[in-house]
Specification:
heterodimer; A: 16 helices; disordered N terminus; disordered C terminus; B: 17 helices
């Protein structure tokens, strides 16, 4: 019973809506994006932003130096709350680092061509976020110079990591993720580096971008291998998106602490990660597209789609909260029940209710299309979600530890100035890297947009201005 | 039916569906007769449990159709357009399942340990009596089915209206209802499976359980629909309309759901196993001892490993013959999964397969399929006025 493939007479393909503005063509796309890097003068806005972020980086370096001199005693952690800001921030940053690979890998596999305008930026953001995240476990060790003990290697001490601990799985999960993300990002960069090399006016630019381009000449064979490599890397990266935050959730859920040990954690952590990742992409993308006049490349369709992804993942997170709450009662376990009661009414209750407001109530506005397409409101929503996702990790880490089984061992956790300095410092580091990235590398993939414009390979031929279903 | 609709099922296709409908009806009636015999011959508890296996599987399939239908309205995509009408027909079997829930509600005190006479002195049952009590249980079942029927009714009606009028607002309305509809499905189904299956062991709980079963339902529904779609693909109007690309996409979706099922099952297993807490571990102690571990092993190898490997192959996904075999295979292994959810709660000492455990899923399945085929031939097989239909039909064609 074969299915014959007969051609059928049908009207032209219905336009899918503007992934790219109608005024763009092959030349304008290249000029606009390469021009930001090669010809645009370094403006005062960039200098000021970069300067501020760089101050944050310096603060981070200072705080880290003091930490390594004195030890983790300068932080607010102590028994019973032995996991404080470091773990909260680690999970927060790792979560943010999920949007990039999701956009570039999964959306590539799903043939979602709208990803083309945002994947480079989101992947860069992923790399920087993972870099910030990776600092925290190393700092948390106290003796950062022994960090290599985390890796299994034959040694005279007969010392091996504890392979049964998810904390050790984290080492492999995060480093694999960082490696694949970096390779994926770099592979996507090669054709654009060649474009920059060819357009560059200064000798040093030609040399630097020439080295980055690895001898790319744009031959058909190059492109064919490039496409194959991208697909393979996407296939490799997709399970990693799920695995990293699953392993992070195991860090908590494998322990038998009420509030940590619950089976919904893996999917709910992954959804939360994508949620915060998309929130961060929006937080950065909305101003950037305005300052660099990229409205016709990062269109309202992108913004709208990202808002929808945020709403979906936000709802999954909300489902997770509800399951936790219901089953803490349904379990009839004293400690489970107390854990949730303590979250709602205990000393950290304000954080809990703030979290509910930020993560559950705020995204409900995204049901409304007018909110999804109003840049200012959407930008505010995305920032609130970022805060909410930070609070979520704070509530999970702190409230479960500070009052566990024995009231005699209850305690409180107060972050110190050093905790804040390091947290804000990583924000500075993140922004510094983002500023450098925007200055040195085309923030939107030039060659992928060139196939989308009219006359490009994948453009819906002929493009007619027609009413658009989802803008 | 609309006379000039190009996607109205051809007489040959309708004839086929009629034949399938009668065959399924015969299977259903024979199965039902066997169950009546079983009701008088075996212990009532066993009858109820076997019945629950059949009821849960086919309710899950019907509800999976409803869920996938709402998902495809939200996500768009050619795969959804090709199976929309089949999903609609699947969702229209929900009233049948509503009828079939009556034996469960009538037999609560035989089936559920928390409702056994004198169960209240158990602490876990006593503490949960606010939620786990017979009147509330019945009221919830009625509420769930009411909500699902309402969703089903509106989505089916608007879709038919769209065929007739082509009003663009209907597409928007369908989308607008589907978003909240998915949320409603997830929440109501979570509580429904908590009631109907999880509470078979009133002391045990798991927060991922609802999600796990929802994913299983979507997989059952997708496998059923793919099998039926390919069954109709050699007769007009579907012949020549379905491309290999459509089948490829549906196969990929089956692969994704298979993996998601495995991911959630594994998460639940590893967390409960490593935590090893008395109130949680009972679930796996029952299921990993006394012969039941073989069923678990079969699920690992043949609900995940085998279909995973098969569905990785592009050639197998694009070939209608092989894809249909895989889909049918998945339906069978899904029933084993539901069996594994229900039965080990009762036969703790050793593995036991009662003949009713086969008769019930087959009997209810016969009725279900018969009603499904009847519903399927009521409407044109593609939504003629859906906004993206042309694009969906062109999926996988170079022009």
């Amino acid at each position: 019973m074969a299915i014959p493939l007969q051609p059928i007479e049908l009207p032209d393909e219905v336009p899918v809506g503007p992934i790219i503005g109608p005024e763009e063509n092959l030349t304008t796309v290249t000029d606009k994006l390469a021009g930001i890097v090669l010809r645009r003068k370094t403006g005062y806005g960039w200098l000021m932003g970069f300067g501020l972020a760089f101050c944050g980086t310096m603060m981070l370096l200072m705080a880290m130096t003091y930490l390594f001199l004195k030890g983790t005693g300068i932080w607010g952690i102590n028994m019973p709350v032995a996991w404080g800001f470091a773990i909260v921030n680690f999970v927060w940053w790792i979560g943010i680092g999920h949007a990039g690979t999701l956009i570039s890998a999964i959306l590539l596999l799903l043939n979602q061509s709208w990803r083309n305008a945002i994947n480079r930026y989101a992947e860069a953001m992923t790399l920087f976020a993972v870099a910030c995240a990776g600092l925290f476990p190393i700092m948390h060790m106290g003796r950062a110079w022994l960090a290599y003990w985390l890796l299994p290697y034959p040694n005279t001490m007969q010392l091996w990591p504890q392979f049964r601990s998810p904390l050790d799985w984290d080492v492999f999960a995060v480093s694999t993720y960082a490696t694949i993300s970096l390779v994926f990002w770099y592979v996507g960069l090669i054709p654009d580096a060649a474009s920059l090399r060819d357009q560059a006016e200064h000798r040093w630019q030609q040399v630097v971008y020439g080295i980055m381009a690895l001898g790319w000449r744009g031959s058909a064979r190059h492109w064919q291998r490039y496409e194959k490599a991208s697909l393979l890397l996407a296939g490799l990266a997709t399970p990693l998106v799920l695995s990293v935050h699953t392993v992070v959730s195991f860090d908590f859920a494998v322990a038998i602490i009420p509030g940590w040990h619950t089976t919904i954690f893996p999917p709910y952590f992954v959804a939360g990660a994508v949620y915060s990742g998309f929130a961060m992409v929006l937080t950065l993308m909305i101003p950037v597209r305005k300052f660099y006049h990229l409205e016709s490349l990062v269109t309202m369709r992108h913004i709208n789609n990202m808002a929808k992804v945020m709403l979906t993942t936000g709802l999954i997170v909300g489902y997770g909260y509800m399951m936790e709450a219901f089953f803490s009662w349904y379990s009839t376990n004293t400690y489970e029940g107390f854990m949730y009661w303590n979250r709602m009414t205990g000393p950290y209750a304000p954080y809990f209710w703030c979290l509910i407001f930020c993560n559950i109530i705020t995204p409900q506005f995204l049901w409304i299309k007018r909110v999804r397409t109003n840049l200012i409101i959407l930008w505010i929503v995305s920032i609130i979600v970022n805060i909410g996702m930070w609070l979520e990790r704070f509530v999970i880490v702190i409230t479960s530890l500070h009052r566990d089984f024995l009231p005699s061992s209850w305690g409180m956790y107060y972050p110190t100035a050093w905790d804040w300095a390091i947290y804000i410092g990583t924000l500075g580091l993140f922004m510094t890297l983002i500023y450098l990235f925007m200055r040195a590398i085309p923030m939107i993939t030039i060659h992928e947009l060139r196939v989308l414009v009219p006359g490009g390979v994948r453009s819906p031929q002929p493009v007619q201005p027609q009413p658009v279903k989802n803008i | 039916m609309i006379a000039d609709n190009p996607y109205t099922l051809s007489p040959a296709a309708v004839n086929d569906l009629r034949k399938h409908q009668s065959t399924a009806l015969i299977v259903g009636i024979v199965g039902m007769l066997a169950m009546v015999v079983g009701f008088f011959l075996t212990e009532h508890g066993q009858f109820m449990r076997s019945y629950l296996v059949g009821f849960m599987f086919w309710t899950g399939t019907a509800m999976g159709c409803l869920a996938l239908m709402m998902i495809q309205y939200m996500s768009g995509g050619a795969w959804g357009m090709m199976i929309r009408r089949s999903l609609e027909a699947g969702s229209r079997t929900i009233p049948l399942m509503m009828l079939l829930v009556i034996p469960i509600l009538a037999g609560v005190t035989v089936l559920y340990p928390w409702a056994f006479p004198g169960a209240d002195h158990l602490k876990a049952v006593h503490d949960k009596r606010l939620y786990l009590n017979v009147p509330f249980f019945v009221a919830r079942a009625i509420l769930f089915f009411g909500v699902w029927c309402l969703l089903m009714f509106l989505l089916n009606r608007w879709s038919l209206e769209q065929d007739r009028t082509g009003d663009i607002n209907l597409a928007r309305k369908l989308e607008k209802l589907s978003g909240p509809g998915i949320v409603i499905y997830a929440f109501t189904m979570t509580f429904a499976v908590t009631d109907w299956v999880m509470s078979l062991d009133p002391t045990w709980f798991s927060t991922v359980y609802g999600l796990l079963l929802c994913v299983g339902q979507c997989l059952s529904a997708l496998a059923t629909i793919v099998a039926v779609l390919i069954l109709m693909a050699d007769k007009p109007p579907l012949a020549g309309l379905i491309t290999k690309r459509h089948l490829h996409d549906l196969g990929k979706l089956m692969l994704a759901l298979t993996m998601l099922w495995a991911y959630l099952s594994f998460s639940q297993l590893i967390l409960i196993w490593s935590g090893n807490l008395p109130e949680e571990i009972s679930y796996y102690i029952n299921r990993l001892n006394g012969g039941w571990e073989w069923v678990g092993g079969i699920l690992l190898a043949f609900h995940f490993g085998f279909p995973f490997l098969l569905l990785l192959s592009q050639a197998l996904k694009k070939n209608p013959k092989t894809l249909r075999i895989i889909a049918c295979y998945i339906i069978v292994i899904r029933i084993v999964d539901v069996f594994w959810l229900v039965e080990p709660n009762f036969n703790k000492a050793h593995f036991q397969l009662h003949w009713l455990d086969l008769a019930a899923p087959i009997g209810i399945g016969g009725l279900w399929f018969s009603y499904f085929f009847y519903q399927l031939r009521q409407r044109p097989i593609l939504p003629v006025n859906a906004p993206d239909l042309e694009k969906a039909l062109n999926h996988g064609r170079h022009h």
